[in-house]
Amino acid sequence: MIDAHVHLWQLGRNDCSWPGADLPAIHRDYGLADLLARLDANKVDAAILVQSQESDADTHWLLSLAAETDRIAGVVGWVDLTGDVAARVAAMQVAGPLVGIRPMMQGRAPDCFDDPELAPGFAALARHGLVLDALVRPQHLVSLARLARRQPDLSIIIDHAAKPLVGDTIPADWHAAMADLAACPNVACKLSGLLTELAPGAGEGAAAPFIAELVALFGPDRLLWGSDWPVLTLASDYAAWLDLACASVPVAAHRAIFADNAARLYRVTQGAAA
């Protein structure tokens, strides 16, 4: 089993500026020992470690952690997409198992993926065999779909299903935009982050229909489960989210969604997760 989305950070080090004191539940260091204990407690074999800071230093620190254990199957790092992307990611790939780049677009303009200054960076990611992890919100999905069609050789994974408001009804605009992206064969989606997007008063069960819609849209071969731990702890806990996801996904799709898809899309060996 592979957890496709976990974070680690050290407050005040490696350019770490988030989370702040306004999030006291997670305003502390999370290190490799914390992660391995969480994986062991939930019988998870390996994880994909995802950046949380817009910093090369953070990425290199994560790569150094991956060198300490094969339980980290790969690292999704950060790079400035307007810089010399090819040279910087090549250096990162030498340093450790870099499998993707996450530019953190959720705070940018809705059409940010159409910015011509970013086009060479996206092309460099594709040439280096790296996944674009798309940290976005629903308003970015139309622009992301245009990128997916312009750059069909770029593998794109939508983080946290684009953070829809998870309540009693499925937002029609989110569903339509996700359906359009699902029509692109180079786009996959992480089954993660839904519980931290619960509408006020909504219970965790409200996420189940969203999971069902994602399975229907992307099928069993382009969904991959991630905990988003420790951010997840702002809304729930690891075991509860894993249980909910397992119960909401068809049993026949469990191996694909909880292991094989992460291994294939991030190009990591199943041996690292066995």
Automatic annotation (TrEMBL):
Listed Pfam families: Amidohydro_2 (PF04909)
- What molecular function terms (GO) are annotated for this protein? hydrolase activity
Q: Which residue ranges does the record assign to the Amidohydrolase-related domain? A: 2-267
**PANTHER family, alphabetically?**
AMIDOHYDROLASE, AMIDOHYDROLASE-RELATED DOMAIN-CONTAINING PROTEIN
What is the similarity comment for this entry?
A: Belongs to the metallo-dependent hydrolases superfamily.
Name this polypeptide is given: Amidohydrolase-related domain-containing protein
What is the native source organism of this protein?
Answer: Sphingobium yanoikuyae ATCC 51230
